[in-house]
Amino acid sequence: MIININSLTKKYTQGEKSLSVLDRLNFKVEESKSIAIIGKSGSGKSTFLSLGAGLDKPDSGEIIIHGKDITRLSENELTQFRAKHIGIIFQQFHLMQNLTALENILLPLEILGKEDALIKANEQLAKVGLSERGHHFPHQLSGGEKQRVAIARAIVTEPNIIFADEPSGNLDDQTGEEVMELLFELVKHSQTTLVLVTHDNELAKKCDDIYLLQEHKLIKQ
Amino acid sequence: MKLILKLAFRELKNSKKFALFFITNLSIGILGFLILHSFKLSVNESLDARAKILLASDISISSRKDLSQNQIEKIDKILSPYILNRANITGLYSMGQGEAKNKRSRLLLIKMISNNYPLFGQIKLQNYGVSDKALKADLKNQKEIWISKDMAHQLKLVVGDYLKLGKLRFKVRDIIVEDTTSSSAGISLAPKLYLHKRYQKDLGLISQGSVASYTYQYELSKTGLEKIKILQKEILDELNDPAFKVLLPENSSEQVGRVLNYLSDYLGLVSLVAIFLSTIGAAFLFQDFVFKKIVDIAILKSLGLQTKSIFYLFSSQLLFLGGTSVLISSVLGGILLPLGSGILSDAMGVPVSLSLNFESILVSFIIGMVLTFIISFPIIQKLISKKTHDLFGGEKNLVWDNSKKDILKFLPLVIAMEVLSVWQSHSLLIGTAFTLILIISSGVLFLFIPYLLTLLDKLFISKDKLIQNLVSIEFGLSLRFLTRAKIATTLTFLSICIGVMLLSLISQLEVSLNSELLGDKVKKPSLFMFDIQAEQKKPLEEFSREKNIPLTGLTPMVRARISKIDGTEFNREDGEKDFQTREDEQRVRFRNRGINLTYSNKLNHTQTIVKGKPFDGIYSGEGNFEISLDQRYAKRINAKLGSTMTLDVLGVEFRGVVTSLRKIKWTSFLPNFFITLQEGVVEDAPQSYLGVIDELSEKRQLDVQDQIVEKFPNISMINVTELLNKISSVFSSMSVAIKVMAYLCILVGFFVVYAIIQNQLRKKEYDILLLKSFGMSSKQIMKIFIIQFLKISFTATVFGCGLSLLVGNLLSQVFFDGVWQIDFVYFLSILLIMCLMTVLLVIFCASGVYKKPIRSLLE
After folding, report:
1. Cβ contact A46–B480 (<8 Å)
2. Domain finish residue from B405, B426, B447
3. Helices B254-292 and B486-518 sit at what angle, rounded to 10 degrees?
4. Same-domain status, B468 and B341
5. Which residue of B has its CA nearest to A166?
6. For the segment B572-584, what is each residue's pLDDT rounded down to a tens digit?
7. Is residue B531 domain-shared with residue B511, that is, in the same domain?
8. Based on the structure, what is the number of domains in chain A?
9. How far is A83 from chain B (nearest CA, A)?
10. Which residue in chain B has the smallest CA separation from A109?
11. What is the extent of the structural domain holding B108?
């Protein structure tokens, strides 16, 4: 199993009240599978994704990714782990505004200190069909192009898992569909595991498995 | 409008944390300014009071001829609404004979005073303490005198002895131990005594042709300096005679007056700098505030709120936040300032009373509300006129296109700065120069930096170059953040650079003024000697050598008048009564007066030739002889290098040409003259010599006086230690004041750098989260921002120091008589401090930004 989550619990406190978001949640994913997590707004999808991607810490439970319980890692170890094994795609694209498209893709490779970074980044840029746009800054790109760059950036380090948070949520239907097709194709090609958080049932159906996040737990559909 | 205000305050109520942060920061900045401004006012007040004591009055009219009754009435008419008290004093040099055991005779300075003298300051006596009404009544009724320590010593007089002056005999009532008015007349030529004015006539010393000085002094009700200057001008116009000097405390003595004026200009400049720095800091905070509201603006627009209404909404919020900050800092200032008074008073040796006053609060309101609003106006205006769709993308997606027309929107800021500068510096010239310097340097940097950044980007981080190849990934990323965010980098650079330039300017002037005030660390003279006859020069030198007396600076002195300069009669210019500058005023004062000059082919160590060449040997008698002038004096009498001057020595005219201008360190207190002639011109004219005896212990001073008086009875000797100590103490106080002002200014500068870094890091919050999500460690990220800000602050500081050198030199030429010294150690220190401060502030400010969880990227 590439992901093995056991008894995961996360609560938020609002004033004196404690709000349970995830409660003793269990979840397992095999390597190279694509998984869709669906659920209503406020059901805890984003919380689940941030815990799985190591962006946040749970209150209890374990998250074993690639054989390592990331809840036991220190902040520095977790950072290094994320750089090597996890790629994230955000709904808001989140590109570095002061870096060009190519530099945005280069950045995670450089953080890892890869020697052939430039070649790989250029290859990835070509794979998302933006060879001609490499030297453009984010504000010079369309929404679809920005998300392509974000996908390329997430995939370029060949992570074990990609967590994607509503990647087409900020795009029109047609562009969203094109971008998602590209994502599925690249994930399939690179044998990467994909955990996709979406509220779009049609999109979810394109994944190998669908889980519904309901009443603080994941239920396989 | 009601709805707008309701919306504005509801929003502020809901963002308590931000409002608190904003108000705290701005309050600190304004408090720094308040302390500085209050200190400036207090120092000004305290030094004004000292100057009044030196002049012993608010306004004084003096001349070598007495005022007629008609003239006195006319002056009274001009001053009548303001006169609180008046005093008059007549001074003359005459021989006096002690009736002690050895009946010695000496040249004495006799000061005949009226009942109220001195109006300010005091005369302290050895046995009776400060002279009071009863003591003055005894002077009048009992025919008593107060004599100086020098006189007592040289004539061997003690209390109760008699002294014969003219036709009368006076009883020594007491010995003067302290006379606060003594420095107003500079160094007198003989030991002094005080007697009452009623004996002036009976003494029989003043007859037709006698040389005496008559001074009429007035204490006025509290009137502004400007008003007193108007009164001074009216009196000058009324008297219409160049023989009369009408003095204000600021012209009380050549040395003190000059440095007081320097200090006043300096304080004005520091205050302006603080205002500007506070405004930059406040503007950054306001900018932060406005940018946080981008999405809110979009929402309000989409809900149908008019652009005008949104403008009012944000303006009212800004004004409320600014106003609250000013109120808080004023309250804090009201509590803290009096506490600081004691500490500063002890440090400076003059009473410093720090308290809030209307002017300080008014200027704070102008900075906190008006200036910051004006500076934020173009940004607010531009933001709210953006398309709603673009605004919904938030700050990070907003494309900030700038057009040349946008520059015009800063015009109100320029006008406001000019008005404030002129108001604070009390000078159109200084205020405008300050504003112009800021505009020109900002403009040049604003045009130049974006191009430089583009060039840097192309040269060093051109397309497809790996970031990690640029030394390190942190270095490369920080460089890209700088070169790609041109506007932010330029603004940060500009703010730090201008801030450093101003701070550096302040401290450079501090170094220069301090060197002027405190002088070289050479020994100051103890005794001044006058009336040394030419034939006594050699014997005196031999005698001094023999007795091991440190006699120096024997300088010949010849009395002369200037008849013509460049062929034009040297008289007071008609109609030249409306002084535009202090220099004009001094120039007029110096006209048509007899002047002492000297001749020498050598310079002493307090003189430096700043223009022209040294004298070409001894005058051969053919053509024009050579003249060297003090550079400031040359300006006052309108003489330049190459000017011809005709001098009148006892009716004989000599013509020479100005071949050099000298800078004289007057604070050395060595005999120096405005005019020095080439040797071989006036050696045959009647002359006497001046000399000084270097620093001696009090006991040795008395011994030396005894020895010289015994051997050369005609030589007058004055102990100048007390006078020099008094002047030095004023200078030292000023020096501390200048230092404190510079430190306070740096405190305000610290606030600016803090506001800038806080602002810039908050803008990078999103980048920090992204880098973290990519797997960059906190240490690496911190390193990126430290390097990024270090790059800016290092280059901006170097640029700022460079600019301050240029501007400082210019300022010193225009306002400080060329008083300017470069202190490279200071530059290095400021560079180090700035870099260290940047690192610490980045670490401090970043800790707040780091707290934000990465998961907020998903929100």
Report:
1. no
2. B426
3. 160
4. no
5. B858
6. 444 344 444 444 4
7. no
8. 1
9. 4
10. B774
11. 83-220
